Amino acid sequence: MNAETRPLIKPLSSGVGNMASMKAVFSRDMKVAFRQRQDLLNPLLFFVMVVTLFPLGVSPEVSFLREAGAGILWVAALLSVLLSLDHLFRHDFDDGTLEQLVLQPQPLFLLVLAKTLAHWTLTGLPLVLLAPVLGVMVHLEGNSIAVLCLTLLIGTPVLSLIGSIGAALTLGLRSAGVLLSLLIIPLYIPVLIFGTGTVAAATEGAPVAAYLALLGAFLVLAITLAPFAASAALRISLSNS
Amino acid sequence: MWQIFHKLGSPKWFFGIATRLMPWLLAGGVLLMMAGIVWGLGFAPKDYLQGNSYRIIFIHVPTAFLAQSVYIMMAVAAVVTLVWRMKLADVFVKAVAPVGLVLTFLALFTGAVWGKPTWGTWWIWDARLTSMLILLFLYGGVIALDRAINDEKSAARAVAVLVLVGVVNIPIIKYSVEWWNTLHQPATFKLTEKPTMPAEMWVPLLLSVLGLYLVFGWLACLRMQTEILVREQRTRWVREHVMAGRT
Amino acid sequence: MNNVCTRRVSLECTRCRMSVHRPGYGALMSEPLLQAANLQCERGERILFRDLSFSILPGTVTRVEGANGTGKTTLLRILAGLNDAWSGELLWRGQSRVIHREEFLRNMLYLGHRPGIKALLTPMENLRALTASRRPVADTVLHQALAGTGLDGFQEVPCRKLSAGQQRRVALARLLIADEPLWLLDEVFTAIDADGVRAIETLLQHRAEEGGAVVVTTHHDLQLPGMQRIVLGGESDDEC
Fold first, then answer.
1. Could you tell me which chain B residue has the CA closest to the CA of C47?
2. Contact: C1, A4; criterion CB under 8 Å
3. Which tens digits make up the pLDDT trace of A4-57?
4. Whose CA, among B112, B180, C2, C194, lies 20 to 30 Å from B220?
């Protein structure tokens, strides 16, 4: 090993900018995910299968599906986000990447935000893109489908963000998956209510701008608060390991 | 000022204070609750609409009230745990979370019992009942997380984060559940929100609420003492305390 | 390459296992990077160590010793700021690490037992990701660093196809390009062959001569001239 090229030691005063390192975190997560494409499909398949259960298990009647369709899709999307959350920090925790992340000289909450954004891009966004197909299958009307997709587009990042707190809290615990669901589901309820409520309003022909604005407010709140809570939880979980 | 704060945080000091305080809390609480409940169940006037069945509010309202304020108290303690790392604060959270869970369950149970004669069904997706149910989930999550983490300090801090996340969410949950409720069931009439409750009704109600607070204080002290004894079992004062109790 | 090494003097461990005398030390190196006073750490019911006081000076290699379970890794994680279940005082350049967190993290390199190598990525991608947030390095330099750790020809092979030792070497390549003044290395010799061990020893030696500070935990019998030792485990204070 040659040590000849190294500069003299002096304290490093300037570092990499926040945006640059967020980008680095994001692109690494994307790269890792695309090396294992099968894993990307799993939440999507789960989403489709859960939706399929409802016509089979409850009723294939058009009237029922049209009324319950938005709720079914929302619950299925929520569950499949929940299912994928366990992986958000788990692999990084196991291979030590998380320790390096926490020790990066940038504010941790920004890095957590970048990771959560990557998580949403890989799970939430595909769900939103798949939703119209399933919307047609549960006989939703065109307008309702559009509104549904819009609510999912605003709502699923909130799910990822809130979920990141639970994923960070349960890191390294036995049966973390179940525990994660227990902690997070109650916190998902407002998003679910407003997500489905918006579609219901649209179906009745009521204006939905106000509801969408409210969902947007949830998103803003989640973006500002969740990364802080998640990074605090990450530090605690790492300290324990 | 800091000295007092640190003294307050000392488990040994708290243990002594709690021992002296507890008989008063228990006696006062039981007295007030007895007064409130006996008055409420036996002597308060009938409700013109619901007859005698409304009388369950003398149990339902105190439990529901306390179930919610215990969570708020836990959130305050959680802040103290995270900011000042005060040992007593996390002892408090750990000790009262199951109490909160039981109170929430009691509130739900009495609500269901009350629902049977008034609504004709045990359960109704009423806004209040639903938010209490979610509160029950939140308590359950807190307890489950606490049990799942072996290391005491990490458990305390992780639980504190969860409690704080929960407390930020509670108003949002409450608001959204109420909105959802009006969307689905516009006809529900609110029972406990009659502003014209006569004094013969609200005075005993107030007494039983206060009484339950005191009993809760006693129970919290008792459970905290137990938790402190377990945690500090290695220290000399605990050994001396236990030995003194034995002889 | 510089004259720092000529000023290096052997450490004298006096009664206390931690106090280190460095008479005649140059002004360049006088300021300790890390100072620990009365460190104490409990895990569960057990006290791992207490009353641990030491300074990490620039230009030194410090070896943390002790049997399994005495808290070597824990101590290193405490120094890195990963574990905060400790009490006592720990200063970075005489200042609080909490307040100067960013500066501390910029100047400290920690290699853990699990060094943060993604099995799905290639050594190049791993190294790039690990350095990107600290100090971006040109790909040619990364390539050379990997070659320098004996991974020439493996730079673009996914890490999961490499052996355990080779994966460790990916992490070690960071040391060839790192310019953080303080290195905290946990079990660097694990899964490394004899040649590699010698190379790392030389590297650490050079690093100290350059003026860097290195703290290592290891079971390997690392002997470097002028090495400081922190012995954990056992309440006996006459280890030195």
1. B234
2. yes
3. 444 445 666 667 788 989 999 999 999 999 998 888 999 999 999 999 999 999
4. B112
Question: How many angstroms separate the CA of residue C200 from the nearest CA in chain A?
Answer: 8
pLDDT of residue B101: 96
pTM: 0.86
Residue B194 lies in a domain: no
Q: Considering all CA atoms of chain C, what is the largest pairwise distance in Å, rounded to the nearest integer?
A: 52
* ipTM of predicted complex: 0.88
* Residues of B at the C interface, defined by Cβ within 8 angstroms: 150-154, 234
Of the two residues C17 and A220, the one the predictor is more confident about is: A220
Q: Which of A151, A179, A181, A182 to mutate to test the interface with B (most CBs of B within 10 A)?
A: A182
Candidates B148, B165, B183; nearest CB to A229: B165
Q: CA-to-CA distance for A57 and A60, rounded, in angstroms? A: 9
- Domain contains B124: yes
CB contact under 8 A, C43 and B151: yes
Q: Structural domain of residue B28, as residue ranges?
A: 14-187+202-246
Q: Starting at the earlier edge strand, list the strands of the sheet with C46-56.
A: C46-56, C34-43, C86-92, C95-96
Q: Give the closest of A173, A190, A193 to B149, CB-based.
A: A173
Asked, for residue B47, whether it belongs to a domain, the answer is yes
Confidence of residue C2 (pLDDT cuts 50, 70, 90): very low
CATH fourth-level superfamily of C33-107+181-235: P-loop containing nucleotide triphosphate hydrolases (3.40.50.300)
Closest to B220 (Cα-Cα) out of B61, B72, B25: B25
Q: What is the pLDDT of residues C38-61, one digit of tens each?
A: 888 887 777 888 888 999 988 889
Number of domains making up chain B: 1
Interchain pair A6, C179: CB under 8 A: yes
* Beta strand C46-56 pairing with C34-43: antiparallel
Nearest alpha carbon to residue B180 among B133, B119, B136 = B133
Residues in chain B closer than 8 A to A200 (CB atoms): 183
